Amino acid sequence: MTLKLYDYKGAPNPRRVKIFAAEKGIELTLINCDMSKREHKTPEFLQKNPSGKIPVLELEDGRCIPESVSICRYLEAIQPEPNLFGSDPFEMAWIDARNRQLELELWSQIGTSWVNGPIVGKMGLFKQIPAAKEASDANVRRYYERLNTELGEQAFIAGSRYTVADITLLSAVDFASAMVGLAPDNDLVNLKNWHERVSARPSASA
User: Fold this and answer.
1) Structure pTM?
2) Which residue from 86, 106, 110, 78 is spatially nearest to 164, judged by alpha carbons?
3) Domain 4-78 CATH class label
4) Rounded Cα gap, residues 199 and 171, in angstroms
5) Longest pairwise C-alpha distance within the chain
6) 45-59, pLDDT tens digit by residue?
7) The dihedral of CA 174, 175, 179, 182: what is its sign?
8) Cα within 13 Å of Cα(181), Cβ side
9) What is the residue-wise DSSP string for the chain?
């Protein structure tokens, strides 16, 4: 079965899918969608995802699945092990809740800082709001502190084992560090140790 993933180097959401697939041992055929050339906004791409975003997973029969978590759920369904979304009703709900918290409370703030930051500013695509970036930068820092406290009590984001929530956080922290100027402070030892552990997994280089 050939699975095509529309990808762009450095983009954090496609990276989530690539790490997830690597954990599962699922091979993906990567198709570069050059966001700098607005290829994700072409009429052809909008047929695959009307929202004009990556990643998109294209199945062998031409059907397409957008949204990174939705793609990961599909991959989990076709390759259940190793389990990354939960193995019983409570764990499935808890992992989903933790993943959603990261998306709504951390990823959203990183996104605001990115859109209002210098790299996007040079593109001239948006009217930037410096005050919004100042607020979101502070929110990211506070969330890092929260995570540092939580990771002092548990090894991984959703408990004692590696799950999709860890993949979400790894992608967020690496993108924020490399592209947004929001690396966690060095004194957040628990968060730093977690990052070192998950970055050492072979899938992290996907």
Assistant:
1) 0.95
2) 86
3) alpha beta
4) 10
5) 50
6) 999 999 999 999 999
7) negative
8) 14
9) ---EEEE-TT-HHHHHHHHHHHHHT---EEEE--GGGTGGGSHHHHHH-TT--S-EEE-TTS-EEESHHHHHHHHHHHS--S--S-SSHHHHHHHHHHHHHIIIIIIHHHHHHHHTSHHHHHHT-S---HHHHHHHHHHHHHHHHHHHHHTTT-SBTTBSS--HHHHHHHHHHHHIIIIIS-PPPTT-HHHHHHHHHHHTSGGGG-
Q: What is the pLDDT of residues 129-157, one digit of tens each?
A: 999 999 999 999 999 999 999 999 999 99
Could you give the CA distance from residue 176 to residue 12 in angstroms, rounded to a whole number?
Answer: 9
* CATH for the stretch 89-205: 1.20.1050.10
